[in-house]
């Protein structure tokens, strides 16, 4: 059955090597991750092929196993894109339910924080191969491109939002919407109170208290 | 390609003989003949493993470790541990609170294994034991996991060895047998025959200066029980939940059983 044990072991070995090399580029981040990894963490990928990967701390390195652990401290399950979002530091990936958590939730929070803190020094790694000056030049260009991309995406989102709310007026503005939701909540609360009051009056009418002589 | 003809299995009246490759030899002589093979290849064992399997033996062993479920503090026995590939990984997993026993019947292999592990800084939680898999020098119910990788086919009395491995396991403990097996695809089987009966002895001659030992390797693989037979033998030895995982098309299979 695809993927067989040999292929799974090969993928596990490759991911493990890549992960340990990446962690070596960020000693502080690695230390934070090692401190957070107090037990085996199992990642259950739900699609397109259901499989489990387990992350285990061995000394100052991590091991990646292609088989489920018999007693994981934490299980994180979800779609591969949700795992990518977590790896890239999206803080909303767990609260929004895109990743489901079972087990030690404190470990889950520590693990997510440690992943967010990771900041490998790719430039230093590149400098070992091509020298400091070319690595710094490439690093500067890449950082500039990344910053420009982020700014462009943020500006595009703001422009689209402004067009929809202000120019085409297809959707109400954020504050207007929040005020409406607040009014709906107040109305809901008032109706619930009124219902409870009516129930109380109804109960009093059907069971009148008898006066004691 | 020449067709390989294994001998007829020892039957009635031949109970005191066993296989040594395609030859039948007295049971009392098999251990010494296997020992000669491993004395001869011990120095080049790792290099030959890498060349013959094209490095894939590391993935087979890795999968065995992943399936072992070994945790910090566990006691693990690695039988026929040879140059210590599995022992090294087990040592990492059990940590300082656990212990791994590297057992091998062959002193040369044990010596190479001990040297290699010591050179790599593995010490403190590893014991080296020269032991026969059929008569393990350990008390009952001592280990959470027992492994034997590419060793069972060299054992004279496999049933006795499986019984003794089961004996030293704790209840709930896991026996893992990693061994060459029968490819499931007929085409792969043909290619595998061609490779193992022609290329392996040639490689053995060129690299280790010994073609006979690698001819024995190819023959002993063919004489080893297939997947289902070995699974039945493990059940006979008293293990439950026995299962096997074919790897690389069944060239190698990992059998796993639990002591009830």
Compressed to H and E, one letter per element, the order of chain A equals HHEEEEHEHHHH
Kindly state the number of beta strands of chain A: 5
Largest sheet of chain B: 7 strands, mixed
> Rough shape of chain B?
globular
**Regions with little confidence, pLDDT below 50 for 5+ residues of chain B:** 1-14
Helix vs. strand class of chain B? alpha/beta
Mean of pLDDT of chain A: 86
Please outline the major beta sheet of chain A.
Answer: 5 strands, mixed
Strand content of chain B: 15-25%
Instruction: Please report which band the strand proportion of chain A falls in: under 5%, 5-15%, 15-25%, 25-35%, 35-45% or over 45%.
Output: 5-15%
Q: How many helix segments of chain B?
A: 9
Identify the biggest protein-protein contact and residues per side.
A-B, 18 and 18 residues
Defining traits:
heterodimer, A: 213 residues, B: 260 residues, 7-stranded mixed β-sheet, two-stranded antiparallel ribbon, 9 helices, 9 strands
What would you note in describing this structure?
The complex is a heterodimer of chains A (213) and B (260). Chain A is an alpha+beta fold. Chain A has helices at 5-24, 27-36, 80-87, 105-117, 122-130, 132-167, 174-206; strands spanning 41-45, 51-58, 61-65, 74-78, 99-103. Helix content of chain A is 61%, strand content 13%. In chain A, strands 3-2-1-4-5 form a 5-stranded mixed sheet. The radius of gyration of chain A is 27 Å and the shape is extended. Chain B starts with 16 loop residues before the first strand and ends with a strand. Helix content of chain B is 45%, strand content 22%. Chain B has a 7-stranded mixed sheet, sandwiched between helices. In chain B, strands 1-2 form a two-stranded antiparallel ribbon. Chain A binds chain B through residues 4-6, 8-10, 12-13, 56, 58-59, 63, 65-67, 69-71, and chain B through 56, 58-60, 62-63, 65-67, 69, 71, 92-93, 245-248, 254.
